[in-house]
Amino acid sequence: MKNIYFDCDLGADDALALAYLLASPNINLLGVGSVCGNTSADQAAKNTLDLLDLGGYTNIPVAVGEQDFRVNTFDDSVKHIHGDNGVGNIELPHTSRTPVKEDAKDMLLRLSHEYAGTLHVLAIGPLTNLAAALESDPTLPSRIASVTIMGGAAMVPGNISAVAEANIGNDPEAARIVFEASWPITVAPLDVTMANTFEEEHRHALLHSTNPVAQAVGQILDFYFDFYTTEYGRRCSAVHDPIAAALCAEGITTDIAPCAPVTVDDTQGPGRGQLICDLRGQRVGWHDIDGAHVRVVLHTACDVAQHLVDVITA
Amino acid sequence: MKNIYFDCDLGADDALALAYLLASPNINLLGVGSVCGNTSADQAAKNTLDLLDLGGYTNIPVAVGEQDFRVNTFDDSVKHIHGDNGVGNIELPHTSRTPVKEDAKDMLLRLSHEYAGTLHVLAIGPLTNLAAALESDPTLPSRIASVTIMGGAAMVPGNISAVAEANIGNDPEAARIVFEASWPITVAPLDVTMANTFEEEHRHALLHSTNPVAQAVGQILDFYFDFYTTEYGRRCSAVHDPIAAALCAEGITTDIAPCAPVTVDDTQGPGRGQLICDLRGQRVGWHDIDGAHVRVVLHTACDVAQHLVDVITA
């Protein structure tokens, strides 16, 4: 069982990732921290609590995290993608449970001591909470087994600028701190998350499941599919956050995932928010670069969407 | 016949491009400007004069251009790629002809008046001369029919940094001026120039030609192939500059070449020198973006190397 601190801005695809984590046999979800991004940090925490309690996971604590980015301003501007409430305008059954008193970064720091050496971090929103934790305690990486992140665009266009993906681009200053810290990172950029799609057949499999969280996620994705129809030319969606979750759970395999030097553009220039992955010299065969601590997942070797459905509806 | 001002830092692959232009039936090469890059501006002018006169083109004038970049310093650091003299350490027969008195930017400006509306610019080195001409006379674009450039890396790694290609990255300030000017640009980035290779069979076809310029270029490329062996795992080279020349001469066809918004990162950040091509929203089919004036050539629909050989050895 992998001990997990899960940081998210839940979020339509975050909801799918959460449903997957809850159903995964090898995941011990110790706590969830919320962050602004797809919705506000408060709303993300509410959505997470609603989904957890809908599934009966009433013992998993949720901590509210950073309400704003370090330099950019959170402006709740992706309601056209995730709905006004972050979960595709679906009214989930509302739990009376509330977030814990500690904030997300303190939850992460506490868990890093309680599970020193065995705690894995899964971060699928802006990296604001993780950066705050690193600034509070720079020794944090020494107690973390691994960090898995959804973010960036290595060799494909970005989604909030020509080169910037939302999680990195919303808070480049935080992302730079996180990617420069000395912990082993696996990152799933748009290269792999846009290449994998969740289709109507997969969504219907969730809707027809007996798992109430799966059913809710199937409903939530309806709105998300509307947005992605423009991108793909059919009703489906990218598989952003769930790929990071499946990598963390070791449920999927990859065939192109070199360790490479990675940095973040936190200038105010036209490349602001770009996750710069140095993939030079890989033409004769993908290989790890000496000293690099970030594994950049460029291609999966399996049917990710079917894997998600199989685990969630098992 | 297309009237051409040709700006180059000759250069092993520049030599191949020049041999192609001289042999092209539809090119009227009015003048050549040299710029620092693959070698110094003085050496590039010498190499160009030697090749021109070797082929009997003693009436084509060569003007020396900018000796240094706008902010970066020219440091003649690619001798391992292009040889100490820019032409693979081959001793070309040296002509006694010397560059004209006017500098490259003045040649470009003069030609733009003499051939107003019909002058095409082909630039395969850093864009320092073109930027200088634009600053001298901002009305220049109104007299230019088209600009074709080799430079940038749209969705592949750079070659002087993770994201920067040498022509743009050596002088980002100049490149930004050139790409922001209101003239129609066609740019061949590493995406297409690295995907096309010049093989030993092509080089041998040049060596065995009766064209003395072709023979010289076949010899020059030997050293260049040594460098690219590491990149490709076999003796061959990329086809950087000749692709821009062939696009300018309309000798090759493309199948992916959308007009897209393009800018240059001229910050001092980690993305410095990147040609940022906004290729978002092209998943449902490559298409031109309204208002964009830069055509980004991503894929050729023909055998470029064979076309070069066919034209040069005809």
From TrEMBL, chains A, B:
GO terms for biological process, alphabetical: purine nucleoside catabolic process
Domain Inosine/uridine-preferring nucleoside hydrolase residue range list: 4-296
One of the Pfam families matching this protein, by short name: IU_nuc_hydro
Example GO molecular function: purine nucleosidase activity
Cellular component terms (Gene Ontology): cytosol
InterPro entries attached to this UniProt entry: Inosine/uridine_hydrolase_dom, IUNH, Ribo_hydro-like
Keyword Protease appears in the UniProt entry: no
Key words, A-Z: Glycosidase, Hydrolase
Name of this protein: Inosine-uridine nucleoside N-ribohydrolase
Organism, as annotated: Galliscardovia ingluviei
Originating gene: uRH
